[in-house]
Amino acid sequence: MPGTSRMPISLRESFNSVKRTRPPNNPWQVLNVDLARNIVFFLFLLRWTRRVLWKLKGRGVFGTVAELYTDVYRVLYGYFLRAPGVRTQVRRQVGEAIAKLQTKLVPANATRHLALPKEGWADDDIRKELDALASMDHTRWEDGYVSGAVYHGEDDLLRLQTEAYGKFTVANPIHPDVFPGVRKMEAEVVAMVLGLFNAPVGAAGVSTSGGTESIIMACLSARQKAYAERGVTEPEMILPETAHVAFRKAGDYFKIKVHLVACPAPAYQVDVRRVARLVNRNTVLLVGSAPNFPHGIIDDMAALSKLALKRRLPLHVDCCLGSFLVPFLEKAGFETQPFDFRLKGVTSISCDTHKYGFAPKGNSTVLYRTQELRAYQYFVDPAWSGGVYASPGLAGSRPGALIAGCWASLMRVGEAGYLASCEHIVGATKKLAERIRDTPALAAELEIVGNPLVSVLAFQARNLNVYDIADGMSAKGWHLNALQNPPAIHVAMTLPLVKVWEKLAADLEAVVEAEREKERVRAVEGKKAKGKADGDAAALYGVAGSLPNKSVVVDLAKGFLDILYKA
């Protein structure tokens, strides 16, 4: 029939012949296939049953249901944000917010250098341009108006660091035979920090580019240890919800499932009982902070240490922020808690030498109880065509000049200097806390979060919008840190800030009084209390806290990162 494809007769007969001569199905073969299917189904069912049981054990029935509800609500809200009409409006508002950020961060009339100059500039011209860049309008950290960020900033130490940097500008620790001085300084820096944290004999450490890398490497070490010693292929770690975000980054990079544990009021320390309930055979690491970044609270490290020993798990103490303050609290006469290697369950500690160690930015350390634990973060490739390759961390080449600056800083300040810094910085933090508690206008409206023992002081607002307070302080030239979950502001005391903490307290009182007056005016006008928050901090954190799905905030954050690279 035209248009119909027919199989040739010879080929059709051959095919039919094969069909006639094919042996009947082997019953054992059918049985094996069915058995394999049943085994696969059983393993699938076992895996998910185990996961459900672990979830119920860790979160409880009500906690599991609440978490499921939150996840479903977040997904559905995400679909809502992508609906045609809503999506257009959201994109427009995100675009407006990013444009506002760009106006603030990228000067409109600045000269831009978007290509290499045809001829190299004269040294004096470069110096003139560098002076102009350093003098661009900015929050005056030099006057102590910035929370954290710059922890020392005195001219004498800066000059010494610059001199040390200049002597080792071309140095690279990846070539220890070419730059033996850098190798020696790096080893000595690690040894000094190990001693500061009462490390036992046989302890070891590595220098890194900052606290994030230190934390990431500790997580990698724990993951590799669990894989090598217990065969764990689906690793999980348990951390306080206030732990540094670098742990979540490590989880994302290394595919470690992250369990967040609440830090309930009034102590705002991690709930160790909930941590214990979440432990299972896939757990590779427990985490505590000393102190945490948001609220400056030291977790109950003694209880976490006992749990780690009982369950034979690594315990990491994040002391990046506490760095060279927490080890001196007791000597300075301040209240403290156990946190270091004297707790037998502590297996690793991260400590930033570039914070209260006053080293140049780009310096940190990660410390381990044993050399074996440190070796789990190493990377070695013996078969590369370029030769045997080995590196202690993420980076290959590293700036030896920064190591020299760090070594010079530690040697210049010394134990006596760090003790004095602890007395000044922690002392000023406690005075600021007392001022907030003892000043009627501040005590009526602000509530300090927990019992901070070190340099970070966080406070919430009782009746006012705390983000309006943050914007009011920004208008007075202060650069403080706005927090979320719960909404709050924190101050990280530094040596520059020590000199002006009383000015900070006075401006804070003035801003609180101004916000209270606004509320009184609203009440007279018959408006709802806590009027609309229009400031920058409120626009970001107020919206972020109210949205179940954070995709809008993610878009804003990505837009901000894009702006940083806009020339």
TrEMBL record:
GO CC list: endoplasmic reticulum membrane
Annotated metabolic or biological route of this protein: Lipid metabolism; sphingolipid metabolism; Sphingolipid metabolism
Pfam families: Pyridoxal_deC (PF00282)
Cofactor(s) in the UniProt record: pyridoxal 5'-phosphate
Membrane topology of this protein: Single-pass membrane protein
Keywords associated with the record: Endoplasmic reticulum, Lipid metabolism, Lyase, Membrane, Pyridoxal phosphate, Sphingolipid metabolism, Transferase, Transmembrane, Transmembrane helix
Example GO biological process: carboxylic acid metabolic process
Subcellular location, principal: endoplasmic reticulum
InterPro entries: GrpII_AminoAcid_Decarb, PyrdxlP-dep_de-COase, PyrdxlP-dep_Trfase, PyrdxlP-dep_Trfase_major, PyrdxlP-dep_Trfase_small
Location(s) in or outside the cell: Endoplasmic reticulum membrane
Any GO molecular function: sphinganine-1-phosphate aldolase activity
Enzyme Commission no: 4.1.2.27
Modified residues (N6-(pyridoxal phosphate)lysine): 355
Domain of life, source organism: Eukaryota
UniProt keyword S-adenosyl-L-methionine present: no
Family to which this protein belongs: Belongs to the group II decarboxylase family. Sphingosine-1-phosphate lyase subfamily.
PANTHER family: PTHR42735, SPHINGOSINE-1-PHOSPHATE LYASE 1 (PTHR42735:SF6)
Name listed for the protein in its UniProt record: sphinganine-1-phosphate aldolase
